[in-house]
């Protein structure tokens, strides 16, 4: 059957090609495909000596035989390549039945590889033997069976929780624990219970989303036990698996046992009214269809999908409503690419037109084993009595992608559930730990070691004293311990339990709360919400690291620039036509008959991979089942990686039930969809200049060319890739001429032009000058050229190219060589210039970050000139900066260049103007201006290095490159690959141990984002793959300033303060227990009440550190914005390191413990009774006084550290102190039975001696604190302290107290 373009979709192969029935070497089908690593996405073929394009360039009739590249089942890592060539040995074959031909189509006569599958169309019994997995996807961590053991394992993996579990167990050993075991168990249950409840809650949320996904309903052809329609071939042998329609014959042929059971729910449930109406509008029989839940979809089902719906499984395309068997699919949910992909129906199914045909035909698909690679698939499809046709990635519809621009399709399910490609790509994002978290682990380990030493020392002292003094302990009776050794061993457990509060059990829970609250502040910050996207904080454990970034490594296109391309100028006919200066310049040139301008506009409208999509393509959805289906599918969320790890979900996509038909053809209004914003900009501009792209079908381009509608037959498409740096379209125009239209980078296009195109050196120089002018303005340039082929030339080339594509040996190089044959001796059309504007406030943001001491790296694929000019316009470079250009062709050259640059600019400090590198000028001075001021010279350096030179440097001289970059403010790497981006990040991380942040917006930035300490993704024009793979996602580059200098810095100050306060309060409390052992014969007696010890951490003092971590701000936002250098103040973790821990634990903690213990001992225990009537308080009285005094001192310390006193902080203080009072009735009740405490609170607070002592003790405690504060403020003032004093002076000057907002 002929297509509208007049091309038969199922032509016979040329005579000189072997057929499927040939014997001997593996048969091949003639195929023409675009070049490049992802060639599986596109196809081309011959039609009796002519080529026709499809989807990505070629007809659906011819498919390349499935062999060649294989991809590992799982991604192989960040910087590894995963594809390799496999040669298949072939065998002579006998005359093949349909099944044999089906297998041969996939494996070329070889035995099938492990895991391959033969899927029978709509045949339930026949597919049972495959034992395929369910389509249900589960992202939950727990099941009802493993919930308790696995959740507890997750909790006790944390060393702190395991430590407290160990202490709780020891406390149950008789005669060992000095406290009630319950006093140790309750805090552990609180902490572990919170973590357990959080994990279970999060898992229940995942389960709820899984249910929404798995219960979404889809329409399938009604299932039958024995398959549908006629046999494949009536003459096939009885043991042919596809030769009969009966379940018994199918089972026998496939060696199945069908007597053991049957598949339930063959027919599914009735259709909803909306689905039935949609089928009727598509002239499809509703009674032949049924509705099933997504999790019930099985391998072999034929699923009907309408426009806007998400595919529930991996399916082979069988039927499409679009002409030519093409379907347009959005894969943005999978790979982040926003362009529409074209998928095509296999040649063997091209005669099918809908559900009625599918009901009366048998078929099957032989598919490779499930594999993770999105763009790799091999298999073959046989329908009815026809020969099998090979399948590749263009025939496979992936789960999670969305049908677009196509009314409906039918697909044969081949992979379900965990075997679908999206599921095989699922993995958790790389685990990252911030520097505070890493250092905290070390510090906690150090505290464990310190505690162990203290426990051992006190146990040894206890045992030694017991051995010496045991004779005098006659009054102990049966409890007398005579053996010092036994006392030592018992003391190990006793003192471990007694000093267990040395490690704050509440710290880790408090940190989790604080980080979640900090993330909520970021996400609710309206100043960081644009384009409808608030910031997404997905790695809260890295919050504080945002305040200590030293290197920012950024992509350019879409990150620094808006990735909104606009055509602005061209070089046509040796003159520049610039529409920025004169808006109508191009229109006038076209109207005046300028042949160069008119040819350029036509080429812009024809040479591309852009798809026109009607503006009214998707009207507002109605309240039907498809809406709920979309919402349910949007619930499935899990991290996905492709070429690295990236987070992928079946994200909610707009749905459109079948409705009024939109205008078609030349009358409809369209918008253009394309992977490259450059192409979309050029096609859109061509429309404004008089040539409008109207439709793009399987093999036809329809354009309105200066008022006349014309159709161009697509004969082939040679896609762009990073090696070729160009793309070409082979078209047959309405007059029958075969044309090659090519566009690409000037570096590769100019050598391909015919000598007659540029008849003189002057013309060549003029063109090059125009290109240089565009590049200096930061514009992106493309050179267009064309060539007319004679019929003989075309047919000869087409046959050669088809042979190259079907070659089993060295296919890629043969294809590239064949493609280059038509891309020579071309005629120049023109050179276009496209502007990619800088993002909002990008120059100001970069200037601020530079002033904040952050070193900036830009890693881009653009040309050196473009990257340099963007650097100047964005404040990455300035005219006072010395810019060093590095360019080398070998490792030796780059070594010499780096060594000379280091000698000139780093070691000498100042470079001599005009210096150059001997032997070829590898080191060039683009601008040499030294900034002078106030009698001193300061040289600011920048580096620009290209990808080839960078490759040599990374390979052998990375240390030299880092030594030079250490002296630079900015480094720009141009013409780099995604792999090089990740390697640069790794170089900075490993060689300088510096905190790095990588930011980008495209899929090519994922490896860089995941390699950095902190990865920031931007919701970009190219999709959201980078945002999904990142730790934080923002909508514009300018938000990075606020993210780092406001939220990041506050998070660091708060987190460091929470840790310091938590360690301090536990140290001061525990050290009083230690000091008491000196006066109790090192017996392990608890000084503080055992229940007060338990509640001190998890209840009494828990709220104040939490509110400190929530609201603390050492400086106002205004000050931070006006003084970017403040960001440097806490570099290298100055607020949290071993010295600060020693200051708070062994400084303030020990001093406060000494003051409290000896102050109370001297006043109450030694000098006299606490009451005027001479009555003494006793042991429990002084212990309670010690506990309450420590609580007062701790709260006073926290209050003095806080720069923010709001109602939340006041509530934490009041709650903590009041807890001391309302706990007493509970502790003295029969429930707890702590009767010695009964009445002590009243006695304590009625003692004037205690209150006098408490005032003196608290004053003595803070003598050290105020002394340190005075020394730091007056003797060693810091920038932060000076700015704090400045803020206070401004407050006094303004005559009031500044009202601090509750959060940033």
UniProtKB/TrEMBL annotation:
Annotated SUPFAM superfamilies: Calcium ATPase, transduction domain A, Calcium ATPase, transmembrane domain M, HAD-like, Metal cation-transporting ATPase, ATP-binding domain N
Residues annotated for ATP binding in this entry: 555-557, 679, 720, 743, 780, 860-862, 975, 981, 1004-1005
Binding site for Mg(2+): 555, 557, 1001, 1005
Ranges where the P-type ATPase N-terminal domain occurs: 122-183
UniProt keyword list: ATP-binding, Magnesium, Membrane, Metal-binding, Nucleotide-binding, Translocase, Transmembrane, Transmembrane helix
Record-annotated membrane-spanning stretches: 442-468, 488-514, 1141-1166, 1178-1196, 1208-1228, 1248-1271
Enzyme Commission code(s) on record: 7.6.2.1
Organism (species): Porphyra umbilicalis
Protein name per UniProt: Phospholipid-transporting ATPase
Intracellular or extracellular location(s): Membrane
Domain P-type ATPase C-terminal: 1027-1278
Record-linked Pfam families: Cation_ATPase, PhoLip_ATPase_C, PhoLip_ATPase_N
Coiled-coil stretches noted in the UniProt entry, renumbered to this chain: none
A GO molecular-function descriptor: ATPase-coupled intramembrane lipid transporter activity
GO cellular component, one term: plasma membrane
InterPro entries, per database record: ATPase_P-typ_cyto_dom_N, ATPase_P-typ_P_site, ATPase_P-typ_TM_dom_sf, ATPase_P-typ_transduc_dom_A_sf, HAD-like_sf, HAD_sf, P-type_ATPase_IV, P-type_ATPase_N
Annotated membrane topology: Multi-pass membrane protein
Active-site feature positions: 555 (4-aspartylphosphate intermediate)
